[in-house]
Amino acid sequence: MALVQTPFVQIPYVLHTKVTREQPKVMFSDLSQSPLRKNLQRLFLLRNIVIAAQCLTFALAYWVLEMQLPWAEMVAVAVMLAVLNLATWVRLRRKLPVSSVEFFAQLLVDVFALTALLYFSGGSTNPFISLYLLPLTIAAAALPWAYTWVMAAITISCYTLLLFYYVPLPHDHEEHNSEFNLHVSGMWLAFVLSTVLIAWFVVKMGISIRERDKDLASAREQALRNEQIIALGTLAAGAAHELGTPLATMAVVSGELQNEYTGDSEFQNNIRILRDQITQCKRTLTQLLADAGQARAEDGSGQAVDHFLRQVLDKWQLMRPSVKYTYHGSGVQPAPQILNTQLLSQSILNLLNNAADASLKHIEIEVNWDHQELHLEILDYGEGLTGEAVQRAGQAFFTTKAPGQGFGIGLFLANANIERFGGRVRLTNREGGACTQVILPLIRQTI
């Protein structure tokens, strides 16, 4: 059956999981990648561009313009800068934090290298003197204000010294006009190069800051969700204790009724269903209290995915005997294993109950898996998702059911638990109802 993919609700997830045979590994959004580390990576790329531009400029001045300059010294400075950049690349391969002092020291090396090159090629008369603006701009964008003022003082001092101490450029009085035009062209080229590099770096820094803010917002949202889950868990534990006595009373009364009206077959059938439901409620409460301390994904065990799904469906059919369903499952054999925990099975039960509430007569369950992931689709034949449901599905205490028929926490808890195990949930409208799509990672077999 073709699915209509719009509108859809993609419930966001922050946690990603790679599950191995030994234990699952939960990886959070990469908040350890600090802005300074990203900026040092950009400075590394920027320095590569500068070194390539220096080599091109040297070649142009030596072979085309045939300028007589201290080439040995200038090439040595460029080689030293390239060696430093190679050391920076090796340093970036190590997962170590980048401090403001280290980033400032990297910029100082660029300033001193530029000063040395300018000293051997005309000093302040060199049109590329404006490249001093590049490290100053980077410092202002990436570092605290104190470093920026120190960088400003250093660049001004270097510029001032180059006014008086430098190796002059070779000068030919007969070609004064052409040299002046060449100087103007060099100033234009330096301006263009500075503008492009500064714009590139500042834009990348803005993107980095926005990504950091997005990660922090996601972390805050996840923390708020965890607080809601803890509050719900506390209430659930209290409710489990309070419901124990009423359920025991109901079990006793239903047993007496079953023994009293043994001749009424229809009554016996109904009372048997009632006792099964009471037993299921007591078993659920007992399991809830037993699993109250199960806060880690490692506490679960592996189970073949087809057996896991069959157990979940059998349990759900016991809870909802009046709802008919068709099941289609396929995948690689032997079936890989999935992390079998009470939280995960309860989450799938919540999704099945939501579909059954929307489509009381019949639902379809389609499952397929490979060695990495399980794909589960629950197709109902209800009225589909409303506009408000599209916007708010997955939020705590939001429900489209009539008052008194739902608490608005089933989808919220299911989504939170499935994300916790590295999966994701998506709700879509389709022709004739809605579709709940679940993707879960499977345990990878290691040799």
UniProtKB/TrEMBL annotation:
It is found in: Cell membrane. The keyword Kinase applies. Residues 238-444 form the Histidine kinase domain. It comes from the Bacteria. One of its GO terms (molecular function) is phosphorelay sensor kinase activity. One of its GO terms (cellular component) is plasma membrane. Keywords: ATP-binding, Cell membrane, Kinase, Membrane, Nucleotide-binding, Transferase, Transmembrane, Transmembrane helix. It is an enzyme of class 2 (transferase). This is histidine kinase. The lineage of its organism: Bacteria, Pseudomonadati, Pseudomonadota, Betaproteobacteria, Nitrosomonadales.
